[in-house]
Amino acid sequence: MTILLIINDPPYGTEKAYNALRLAMALQNDHVDVQVRIFLMADAITCALAGQNTPQGYYNLERMLKGVLLKSEVKACGSCMDARGVKEEQFVPGVKRSNMAELAAWTAAAGKVLVF
Fold it and tell me: How many CB atoms lie within 10 A of CB 82?
């Protein structure tokens, strides 16, 4: 089964992106037969920025995303990137620029779609 996680919220300020990545990690660890795909939209594209520096004891989405990338595909909305002046080379290695057509294809192919 393929599970698509669509994340819309920024990496910090709410816990939606954090919880989505926690779920992705749990699915990867506990359900080896499940393929996880993650699509970052709106302010969630900043979850993929490299060089995040969070206070000690605070979750770090860059670190979490690197772990998720070991087993999952992560794509970011290209028009969302353009609107925020973000380039693919600013991302953690492995996160790729994408578009609505690919999101539509991923959605159609997914057994489940969860939106955060």
Answer: 11
